[in-house]
Fold these 2 entries.
Entry 1:
Amino acid sequence: MFSNLILWNSHRSRKENGLFFSSLVISIVAFYMILSISTQDVMLFLQKMESDAVDKLLLLIPAFYGMTLGILFFLIYFACKCQFERRRHEFGVYLMLGMRRSKLFGMLLAEDFLTSILAMLIGLPVAVVLSEIVSLVTAKLVGMGIIGHQFSLSWSAIEWTLAGFLAIKLTALLILSGRISRQEIGTLLSQPTNRPKKQMPSVIYGLAAICGSVMLAVAYYMAIQGIAWTKVSMMGLTLLLGIVGTMLLFYGMRALIALIVKKGKGNKQLHVFTFRQIQENVIHQSTSMAISSLLILAALCCFGAGVGIAGTNSLSSGHVIDYTFEDHTAEDSSQVLPNIKAALKENGLENQFSELFEMRVGRIRTTEDYDNAYSMDAVMDSLRSLPQSEDRDVLLNNLGYATYPYLICLSDYNRLLELSGKPALQLGEKEAAVYIDTEFTTVSRTTMLNQVLAGQPKVELDGSPIHLTGEVQSVNLVTDRSITLSFALILPDEAFLYYSQGMYDTYVNAVLSEQALDGNSLMTAYLDLNEKLDETGIEYESYLQNIGRQLFYTIASSYITLYLAIVFLVVANTIVGVQFLMSQQKTGRRYQTLIRLGATYETLCQSAGKQITWFMGLPVLVAAVSSLFGVRALFTGILSSRTRGTVSEMLLVSAAMILLLCVIEYIYMRVVKRSSDRYLLTLMQPQREE
């Protein structure tokens, strides 16, 4: 009989508190996914290229784990407290019928144990599957497909997930069960009520809302303009303004709710009651709503920024060449290519490459007057004639330092363009093209400079006039990003040899052959060939290093941000949902009075639904609007100059993600409404006054 009671109570609690049970399952999934990162194929691969960075990332995992344990403990404690408050009368009846307090305590532990076991049985398989999917998707981002993926199950992650989850669950339950079991029967049987709070004049609330809005505007201005990212004190000030501004905004919303109540139409059923309830909930719970809004904002920003960066960071973009070789022992730069070919042939590796070609890069050697070796007054004048803008000013500043540019050989660069599927450059004897690495420019600035180059402006190279023509070039000169030129001139071969005076650096670029790729994925081919090249002593850089570096940033921006976003989202929605359900129970007598006066179940559900829409919708609305500025502020601080040109594209991806999360918020709202409807249904039955 006792065991049947435990099973029935456990089932009823999960049914009545589906929001909290779902939060437990999601928490388990988040725990496992963050703890299993180190065993995933992609992370094992990354450790071979970016071991130091990956090790530092993995060192942060325990910190994230500990922080999450602390956050979820308060979530579980708060939600369990709500459950126990709703069952106070039930507990009082058990004690009144003769149940010992120790047996009541044991019953609560057993019920919670069953719920925890079921949550783990659902959460762990889901976590393992999602972890594998994320690993496969991340590998797909490299542009290589499924690369010999092997199923991985991290037993240590399972152990720490179970240990952490059960520890915080048991701790919270022991505290709450002890408090409940020690209360007197009369206290348990009495219904809790909301304590009235002092009401301030409407002017105070209005001023608070205005001050909060101003503080939020200042905070986002400082973040978007980059002021907050200059030093720690400014970042602290920005965060303080944002947090206090949000608190004041929600505190001041009481005036808005009061205004709506006064202007409400009397012919709507329970209109005054509904908005009085909303007004009271905002008065009593404005701090909780503000905290929930801040957590939702953090989740939206993490989701938006993480997905925006990862989604627009095309790791396979610009992949033209696979290897770059160097030979610092060659006495003459012209001997580098023959030496590399000979070394590869000597070690039986010449058939691994379908293409081997030079990339010659030098400096102006016909003069030692470095400050006046190159001038482009015509370009600068054309830029100054354009409408004033930030991009124009940055271009003028950057080009003002280009008095001693690098030189690139035209035939070598044309071979690179041919392999990348782009048309070759056609330059006359007195013509040159501009090369700027994407690390040092943006799409808008490149477009602006292309407008100037369309007029073929005349510049001077060591006193000789030449014309700049074509568009700005930016194809990577070598495999890894060890060479990033802020400004260079692409010259015809004869002009290049003349101005460099035969003193230049030679890099040998290589493309893998079909034989090297036969039966292997691109990553496997890289790994196998790297082992062979390591034995030869040939100095090389492979595209694998470039992949590893970019993939690491993708991992850092997706795994961690998505993990934090999930935690913040679960905590925020559970807090705000449980807060409303607790408040609704404390005002249960009001609903019972309305029932005695003739209110129907449908009318009460409509009233409660409107209250939930306002109570949960306000934090989500404020967070959604703020997240548009928050994501843009994050891009300002964390993006490099190379990727800032894709901010508009990232913002579109982020906006889509924010919209998706708003749909998730709507689902949360529907779950709370269903729970509210079930509670109201219990009130429709006549109850005897104790």
Entry 2:
Amino acid sequence: MGFARTRSVTLVGVDGVVVEVQADLEPGVTTFTLVGLPDRTLVESKERVRAAVVNSGEEWPQRRLTVGLSPATVPKTGSGFDLPIAAAVLAASGVLDPRAIEDLVMVGELGLDGRLRPVRGVLPAVMAAAAAGCARVVVPSVAAGEAELVPGVAVWGVTSLRHLLARLRGEPAPAEPEAVRDIGLGPDPLAVVGTLTAGPAAGSAPADLADVAGQGRARRALEVCAAGGHHLFLLGSPGAGKTMLAERLPGILPALDGPASLEVSAVHSIAGTLRPDLPLMTTPPFCAPHHSATMPAIVGGGNGLPRPGAVSLAHRGVLFLDESPEFSGRVLDALRQPLESGTVTVARSGGMLCFPARFLLVMAANPCPCGRFSGRGVDCTCSSLMRHKYLARLSGPLMDRIDVRVTVDTVSRAELFAPEGAGERSEVVAARVLAARERAARRLADTGWTVNAEVPGRELRTRWTVDADALDRAARDMERGFLTARGLDRVLRVAWTLADLHAHPRPTRSDVDTALELRTGVVRGDTADDDGFER
């Protein structure tokens, strides 16, 4: 009789659960039984592990073999259990000292020839191992850089099962073909929804806000949203620059700090979208799914193992919905929960999974189906009823959660041919955004909130109050039914962001009125304040 055990990690959403992998050998007919709620991919590991052991020059035990995955009540998924199963079987058969693998956590898929391939979710798996007090992890060598992002854990990067056995025995690493070391994990086409930018590509210049011609009001609204974490709606005709504005929003957002970088990188590790040369994401992601995307592609889920959707891939970054009225109404309304809570819950018959989804939403829309209802609208072929039905696809409850609404006017010839440098560069705007966020962070230091958009309305009305006369116009709009209670709270949030941008100790009447205009999209008066917004 032989028995050995080691450890691995299974992922439940973005959280890892440390699993004990036990191998037991008994006299009897040669069989291989795998227990502990394995999925189909894991059941197939029996054949992969057997072939990998034999092709690595070791003898497969000709006895009754039982491999148990504990805790048995947690579903086990993926091919990352191949390596720990193989190590436990060999230790149980006497090839290895069982004590040598008891304290190790192993993650990796085995090829039939014993080569080791990385799996998705290495980073959250190592994070879970570190949280459980595990000090050493074994991962494929091509994923070692990703695993080493977790502090306090010793990472062993191995290229094959033979490499691991040699290291455990204290022998020199075996000579292996270079191709073994170059095996990587390509992007998962099922996990990439629309345009996904996790940082500037190698050798390419980041998109700069100075590239946008004109659009002073929209550019300023972009700055306000970046400073306070507010959601944005852009309405304008095709070619006005809505997409250009949205694509440049990540460039003025502050860089991700340490915990946020690991959190975002863990989500993208599960989705298979991490760049091998940049395993730690330090810039906010940008995700722009196509309007034909399905519900699972946007909010997460899918058949088999639930995957993070676009709202999670945009976590701590920007989710851009271009041609937003063309999206399914069910998909758009599904955004209401993550917009409020910062998480998305995927319910399945086997249980519920939570994915992080605290993103900055930017929606863009044409003013009508033909897109030419702007200015005088003389070229528009749509009736007023058609225009109403088109924009009515964006439900009232969803639009009520949008803090800033801006009309993007058609660019004039003078603006288009303006000399270079007419518009501010992203780095200049980003400096003001960072300064505003630092002021908000000092004010919110003793709370769990980081930006103004996260502050509950009750706190804004009781803890950080605004002068009553500053709320005159907002109060009148609320009494006349133009503004809901949620809308008033969001006006106050934007007003605090404007105050932070101007270094005001509290919002002034001008800050509140400007926030109200951004909220309702109604420009009143014919003057301009120091914000640069027309009135």
